[in-house]
UniProtKB/TrEMBL annotation:
It comes from the Bacteria. This is Response regulator transcription factor. It is found in: Cytoplasm. Its main location: cytoplasm. The modification 4-aspartylphosphate is found at residue 55.
């Protein structure tokens, strides 16, 4: 709506104008009226209307004199002059003053509406031009101001900052989104004030606040925090204009610190107040190795969480933290390689180190490494399990070699599949279980033959061979002589 005031010494004219025209429909609103030029001039000063409709002949200060005085105030109001037929000379003066229109009384409603329609178009264009001009001027001003904020360069607009006594910088960022000014101003309309300078740089927005109270700064961040996924970084306050560029360095440093605080929507230097960690990295690494070796998943999680607490409280920079994560990983890799006597491929290690350095939050790094160390623990477990089950099979075989042993029997005994045990045993001993069983039985048969207290067929049965011929064949193949020849040779050597 465009504002209108009516100035006429005749009440019937003022009231008639308000009544005969549907001002709101035309995009206007009558905000006041005056009965003479002096009162009209005062009303113009107070309201700065878009349009003034005034009579010429009025006591004290006539309409043209009022317009002339009003124009000296640099008000951009438009004027429509009302007059009778006998005032043509006044009409010429009105045109000289730059008034838009000159209407004769009695007023023709249709003609006035036509004038108002054309006037509305003109006002809209002027308002648009004025807004564009203001936007451009603000843009240039902000360019100059932020040239100083970010680089310490003093351009023409720098002088605008000289009138302020305190400064604070706020950065707004949103992962994966290029923030524009409208993202912020739609939420926080009050952000556009004379002492606030908003600037878009890269994907981020920066807001320089001048002479603000802590409460007003909190209100800005509170309103901005309504934007989904936005991160807000607030600098400390300085009262020295020469220190303003340091505020930019501060918010950039705080931005990097978002790695430590992935869930903090608003980050300031107060957020980074650190308490000394009760842990030492060397101790945590040592305990982590033990947890991996024993495949204790809960302990691995607990220790990695303690590493996070240690890094947040003790390490100053993100780069240093990532170096420490890398050190921790490589220590565990070395421990695994030495314990298992099996190197991990360099390409695999490099891939994991690359992910550590690319992660954008300490929380995600911790989750990633927990899964890596779960795998390490599982590898330890499976390797130890392989060694343990093979030893168990050996012990069981030494005790029960005389029975009808087979992988099927062992699978039932140890609750594993036949295929699994066969592969595990061969991988560990480089021989099949059947070969191992024959070796145990035949070695026991040698011992019994040396004792010379049993018949050979009895020895065959006692060592698990129910078929004497099969025993004879196996024994001769293993030792190069038959059981009887072995016994004879043994006796002969004993006598000698």
């Amino acid at each position: 709506m465009y504002s209108v005031i009516l100035v006429d010494d005749e009440p019937v004219v003022r009231e008639g104008l308000e009544y005969i025209i549907d001002w709101e429909k035309l995009g206007f609103k009558v905000i006041g009226s005056a009965e003479n030029g002096l009162a009209g001039l005062e009303l113009i000063k107070q309201t700065q209307p878009d349009l003034v409709i005034t009579d010429i002949r009025m006591p004290g200060l006539n309409g043209l004199e009022m317009v002339e005085e009003a124009k000296k105030l640099d008000h951009l109001s438009k004027y429509i002059i009302l007059s009778g037929y006998s005032d043509f000379k006044y009409a010429q003066e009105a045109i000289a003053l730059g008034t838009l229109h000159y209407l004769l009384k009695p007023i023709d409603e249709t003609e006035l509406i036509s004038i108002l329609d054309r006037l509305k178009i003109q006002l809209e264009e002027e308002r648009k031009d004025k807004k564009n001009k203001r936007v451009f001027e603000d843009y240039v001003l902000n360019q100059h101001i932020f040239a100083y904020v970010m680089n310490g360069v003093k351009e023409e607009g720098y002088s605008h900052l000289l009138k302020y006594e305190s400064f604070q910088l706020v950065k707004f960022t949103k992962p994966g989104i290029k923030l524009e000014a409208n993202h912020l101003t739609e939420i926080c309309e009050s952000i556009e004030r004379e002492n606030r300078y908003l600037y878009s740089h890269g994907d981020h927005l920066f807001l320089l606040l001048c002479d603000e109270t802590p409460e007003s700064v909190s209100e800005v961040t509170r309103l901005a925090s309504q934007i989904e996924d936005i991160r807000i970084i607030v600098s400390s306050e300085t009262k020295q204009l020469e220190d303003v560029p340091d505020l930019y360095n501060e918010v950039e440093s705080l931005t990097r610190s978002l790695y430590f605080y992935p869930h903090a929507q608003i980050l300031s230097s107060h957020t980074l107040l650190k308490e000394k960690s009760p842990y030492k990295l060397e101790t945590l690494v040592y305990k982590l190795k033990l947890a991996i070796k024993d495949n204790l998943k809960e302990d691995i999680e607990k220790i990695i969480d303690r590493c996070v607490s240690y890094f947040i409280s003790s390490v100053e920079t993100v780069e240093e933290t990532k170096r420490e994560w890398s050190f921790l990983f490589m220590e565990c890799v070395s421990f695994l390689e030495e314990s298992m006597n099996k190197p991990i491929k360099e390409i695999e290690k490099d891939k994991i180190l690359s992910i550590i350095w690319k992660e954008t939050s300490i929380e995600q790094t911790a989750i990633f490494l927990k899964h890596i160390f779960y795998d390490f623990g599982r590898f330890f477990y499976e390797t130890n399990e392989k060694q343990d089950i093979v030893e168990e099979i050996k012990r069981y075989t030494m005790k029960n070699y005389h029975l009808n042993l087979s992988l099927i029997e062992l699978a039932n005994e140890f609750n594993y599949s036949q295929s699994y045990l066969g592969k595990k045993f061969k991988a560990e001993t480089d021989m099949s279980y059947h070969q191992y069983l024959d070796n145990v039985r035949l070695e026991k048969a040698k011992q019994l033959l040396e004792e010379d207290s049993l018949y050979i067929y009895e020895i065959a049965k006692m060592t698990g061979y129910s078929n004497y011929d099969y025993f004879h064949k196996k024994f001769k193949k293993q030792f190069g002589v038959s059981p009887k020849e072995y016994q004879k040779n043994w006796k002969r050597e004993e006598k000698e």
